[in-house]
Amino acid sequence: MAGLRAAFTGEAAFRQLVLLNVLLIPLTFFFSISRVERALLIAVCLLALIVELLNSALEAAIDRISLDLHPLSKNAKDMGSAAQFVALSLIGCVWAVILL
C-alpha cells in the first residue's frame, strides 16, 4: 500500500492513469459485450497502471544511484517510458478492436 500511496502522491502520470481507469472501467458495464471482452478491456487498463508503477520504480532507482547524466541511465528511463507508451497503445488497440 505504501508503494501505491507514494506513486499517487509523487507521480502525476500515475494519477492521470488512475483517473483514466476511473472513467474507463465503469464505462465497460454500459457496453453490450461478453464478460470475456469486458474483462479484457479492464485488464489492459490495469496493465497500464502496473507498467507505470514499474516505470516510476525504475526512474526512482536510477535517480537514487546518481543524478548525473549518463547514456545508460537515459536509455533505461527511455525504455521505461517506451513500455508505458506500448501499454497505452494497447489500451487504444484493444478498446478499438472490441468496440468498433
Characteristic key phrases:
mainly alpha; elongated
Structural class: mainly alpha
What is the helix fraction of residues, given as a range?
over 70%
Tell me, rounded to a whole number, the average pLDDT.
97
Number of discrete helical segments: 4
User: Which stretches are poorly predicted, pLDDT < 50 over at least 5 residues?
Assistant: none
Beta content: under 5%
Tell me the overall shape: elongated
Our Rg estimate from Cα atoms comes to 16 Å
Distance between the termini: 37 Å
Task: Describe the largest sheet.
Answer: none
Number of DSSP strands?
0
Question: SSE order, as H and E?
Answer: HHHH
Tell me what you see in this structure.
With 100 residues, the chain is mainly alpha-helical. Helix content is 85%, strand content 0%. α1 (2-10) packs across α2, α2 (12-27) packs antiparallel against α3 (35-65) and α3 packs antiparallel against α4 (71-99). It starts with a helix and ends with a helix. The relative contact order is 0.14. The mean pLDDT is 97.
SSE topology sketch:
Layout: H1 2-10, H2 12-27, H3 35-65, H4 71-99
Helix pairs in contact: 1-2, 2-3, 3-4
The gist of it:
This protein is mostly helical and 100 residues long. It has helices at 2-10, 12-27, 35-65, 71-99. The protein has 4 helices and no strands.
